[in-house]
Every structure is written in C-alpha cells, then in structure tokens.
C-alpha cells in the first residue's frame, strides 16, 4: 500500500442555471474584464488515500464522486491523476 | 399514532414539528437521534428543516449517510410515510427517496418569507383534507430551494400527479413572481412514485396556529392521520 493524493474538480452540470457563476461573471465584467464569456463556480476537493497503485486510487476516488462527492443530478466531476502523497 | 422526528446535528425545526404533532394534532411524537438505528416504533417519520451537518458538501449530502437514515430508507421502502420539510426535502432527494435535487436559489439570497402554494393533487396521503386548487399560506426559509430534475423526470412527475404543491399568487396563478427560489415549474412539493414520501420546501409545521400567521399546515398532518389510521 502507498499513499496517494487525488484532486477532484466538481462543477455545475452544463446547461443548468448557475446563478453563482453568473454573478461572478457579471462582477468580473463590471471590474473591466469585459471579454469574460462565462464563469462557473464549483468545488475543489483533495483526497488522500492508501491504495496499491495509482489506478486503484483513481478508481476508488471515482466511486467516491459517484456516491457522495458529486450530485449525479446537478454536478459533473473530473479527477486528476493520482500523485504520491 | 406515533411520529418520529429525526434530529441531525444542525436540525432546527425539529421542535416546531414536535409541537405541531403533540399540541396541534394531539398525537405522540418522539425525537430520533441521527446516530441511532431505531425508529422506536414510529408510524410516520418527519425529516425536519435546518442545516444538518452544517450543509457541508451539499445540503443533505452527509445526513443521508447517518445511521438513522438507513432505517428511514427501509421504512420508506416498506411504504411507511415520510415527510421531508425543507432540509428534509434536500435529504430525501440526496437519499434517493425522491427524484431531482435542490440547488442554490436563483437570486442567490436566503429567502425567509411567507409564500402561497397551490394544491395540485388532493388525492394523496398528505393532501386528502385539502381541495385541489386551494391556495395555502406557509413560510419558507432556505438558501437552496430551487427544485431541478431532468426534463424526463419532470414530465413523469407531472404525468403521475406527483407535483402536489406549486408556488402561486393569491389568485392561484403560477407565475415567476410567485416563485421564491426559481424552482422549475414552480414546484414546491413532490411525492415519491409510491406516494408515501413527501418533500416540500415550505414549512407546514410552522403554519399550525393563528398565532403563527397561518393554520394552513394543520390539515397536512391531519391528512396523514386520516390515511394511516384508516
């Protein structure tokens, strides 16, 4: 067993109204960043886990996303490659 | 009849529910601690409002995995009545007892106000003492109350008469102005496919006395009583 760290990005499902993202987008435009097209606000989660190898760690975190970390109705998730912690 | 009211860390409407059941309805109520595995013989389970587990991750996401919820899920699967109010609605969705999810209010603000809801289906165990089309007044207090579900699920809910409450104005018009949180199709409350789980954002337990400004929630509890006792 080795210790791995995996970063998870969770974002609002595309196509669903994202009022928080829209508010941040509008604020950026007000600040003068007028070329901003779209902003989405999500969550960034760091998971440290023991696993036999990186693939096993990634599989485990994928299952964590499906069961708890992301809501399958409203959110999408992406996980980064496992790194040794 | 015995009502079990679940107390999660962060629940804050459990006392209101307890008072409504015992004082107004005159029935027995007991608190069910989130760490317990025992419904204590409850006939009806209430998942009350509040901020269970601080709304960490997502509203209701952690509460769903608490020990008592495993019993509540079994109770619901066996046809037992479950009433999820506000945070309880969020928990019921996270637990898969109801379809869809509750997202951040479209205007991003916490809304604490009295709203009106229209009874869309008076033929359920939660609404049999109301009339279809009746307008009820109840308070809402939430930041994540915008009901969303995939289009196919919304059609299924509509087709099966499972949207039982919709935000409306005093005249009964379902309009964007009457929608306090941007819920799809002004949905304020839905029931499960078997009809024994109700999730709603408005608070019937806080509309049980003229002193509180409305007594429109009383008949919801009495409806359950009429159905379960029958």
Assess the beta-strand content of chain B as a share of residues: 15-25%
Instruction: Give the SSE order of chain A as H and E letters.
Output: EHEHEE
What is the count of β-strands of chain B? 11
- Determine Rg of chain A (CA atoms, Å): 16 Å
Q: State the CATH topology of chain B.
A: Rossmann fold
Q: Would you tell me the structural class of the helices and strands of chain A?
A: alpha+beta
Proportion in β-strands of chain A? 25-35%
Shape of chain A: elongated
- How would you write the strand order of the largest sheet of chain B? 2-1-3-4-11-10-9-6-7
Q: So what's the CATH class of chain B? A: Alpha Beta
Which CATH C-level class of chain A is it? Alpha Beta
Largest sheet of chain A: 4 strands, antiparallel
Number of helices of chain A: 2
Following the backbone from N to C, one meets helices and strands of chain B in this order, namely EHEEHEHEEEEHEEEH
Total strands of chain A: 4
List low-confidence stretches of chain B: none
Helix amount of chain A, in percent?
25-40%
What are the SSEs and their pairings?
The complex is a heterodimer of chains A (85) and B (230).
Chain A: E1 2-12, H1 19-30, E2 43-51, H2 54-69, E3 75-79, E4 83-84
Antiparallel strand pairs in A: 1-2, 1-3, 1-4
Chain B: E1 2-7, H1 14-25, E2 28-33, E3 44-47, H2 67-77, E4 82-85, H3 87-94, E5 101-103, E6 111-119, E7 135-142, E8 146-148, H4 151-159, E9 163-167, E10 187-191, E11 197-200, H5 218-229
Parallel strand pairs in B: 1-2, 1-3, 3-4, 4-11
Antiparallel strand pairs in B: 5-8, 6-7, 6-9, 9-10, 10-11
Describe this structure in words.
The complex is a heterodimer of chains A (85) and B (230). Chain A has 85 residues and is of the alpha+beta class. Chain A contains two helices and four strands, in the order E-H-E-H-E-E. Chain A has helices spanning 19-30, 54-69; strands spanning 2-12, 43-51, 75-79, 83-84. The longest helix of chain A is centred in the C-terminal third of the chain and has 16 residues, at 54-69. Chain B has a nine-stranded mixed β-sheet, with helices on both faces. Chain B has a two-stranded antiparallel ribbon with strand order 5-8. The relative contact order of chain B is 0.17. Chain B has one domain (2-229): Rossmann fold (3-Layer(aba) Sandwich), CATH 3.40.50. Chain B has 230 residues and is an alpha/beta fold. Chain B contains five helices and eleven strands. At the A-B interface, helix 1 of A face loops of B.
């Amino acid at each position: 067993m080795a210790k791995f760290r995996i970063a998870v990005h969770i974002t609002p499902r595309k196509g669903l109204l994202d009022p928080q993202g829209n508010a941040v987008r509008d604020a950026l435009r007000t600040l003068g960043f007028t070329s901003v097209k779209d902003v989405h606000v999500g969550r960034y989660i760091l998971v440290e886990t023991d696993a036999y190898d990186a693939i096993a760690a990634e599989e485990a975190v994928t299952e964590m996303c499906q069961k708890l970390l992301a809501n399958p109705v409203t959110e999408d998730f992406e996980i980064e490659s496992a790194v040794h912690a | 009849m015995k009502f079990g009211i679940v107390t999660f860390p962060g629940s804050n409407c459990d006392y209101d529910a307890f008072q409504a059941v015992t004082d107004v309805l005159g029935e027995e109520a007991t608190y069910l601690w989130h760490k317990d595995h025992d419904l204590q013989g409850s006939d009806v389970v209430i998942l009350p409002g509040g901020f269970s587990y601080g709304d960490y991750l997502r509203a209701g996401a952690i509460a769903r995995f608490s020990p008592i919820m495993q019993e509540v899920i079994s109770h619901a699967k066996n046809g037992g009545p479950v009433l999820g109010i506000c945070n309880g609605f969020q928990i019921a969705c996270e637990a898969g007892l109801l379809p869809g999810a509750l997202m951040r209010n479209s205007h991003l603000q916490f809304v604490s106000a009295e709203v009106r809801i229209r009874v869309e289906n008076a033929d359920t165990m939660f609404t049999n003492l109301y009339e279809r089309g009746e307008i009820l007044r109840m308070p809402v207090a939430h930041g994540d109350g915008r009901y969303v579900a995939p289009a196919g699920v919304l059609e299924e809910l509509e087709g099966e008469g499972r949207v039982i409450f919709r935000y409306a104005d005093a005249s009964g018009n379902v309009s964007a102005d009457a929608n306090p949180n941007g819920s799809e199709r002004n949905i304020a409350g839905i029931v499960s496919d078997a009809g024994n789980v109700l999730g709603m954002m408005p608070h019937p337990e806080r509309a049980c006395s003229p002193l509180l400004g409305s007594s429109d929630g009383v008949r919801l509890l009495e409806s359950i009583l009429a159905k379960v006792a029958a």
